[in-house]
Write a structure and sequence with these properties.
Low-confidence stretches: none
Mean pLDDT: 81
CATH topology of the largest domain: Rossmann fold
Strand content: 5-15%
Distance between the termini: 64 Å
Number of helices: 7
CATH architecture of the largest domain: 3-Layer(aba) Sandwich
Length: 229
Amino acid sequence: MEISTEQPKYVQLAAKLRESIRSGDLKAGDRLPSYAEMYRDFGATTATVQRVCNLLEQENLIERRSGSGIYVADTTQVLTGNIGILGKADFRTHAGAFFSHLAFGVQAAAEERGQQLVWLHKGEDCDYFGSVDGLLLSGHPAHTNQRIAQIKPAHMPCVSMFITAEGMNSVVVDDYGAAKIAVRHLLELGHQKIACLMLEGRHTPQIPSNRVAGYQDALLEAGISFDPC
């Protein structure tokens, strides 16, 4: 496959792959070349390949399978236009500015793409898979997220919010970094005795532990000891 210099490389490479898919040379379920293979064969950098995949994914021509690779999507699949949100609680009604702001952002992003959100409250049941095109998981412990990743259809994208879950993409808050920033701010204001009060996270223990670690490290960097109790 020859790549000219008349257009950006990612546009040309996307066009070549798009034509291979539409002509049937690449069929539904076929695995696309890896990043390393595309670099070897076409001289495409990781950033270039990422742009190619983003473009073809927006056209619903390919699908990413976490831990496996990138595959040609089944274009005969009928999309519902729905994105499911599955969590322990409906954070639209959760008290606090963070959760209301988060819910607004999720809703706004879906509306920009002409999609609808479906708020699911069915635990780990899988009878909703046919009614949504993708899943956002919020509030589940990591092991539950991993189970859902195993039982969902292979083509269905799935993203974990708040906590990192193996086998799927995750969008999380930098609790460690945020705690350090908060403590440094208090130190800059002249405070020396700073306490860290944290609720126990039964399902997400990494959140309070990361915040406490950030708090402790910020104090140590300032030469201030802390009481572990």
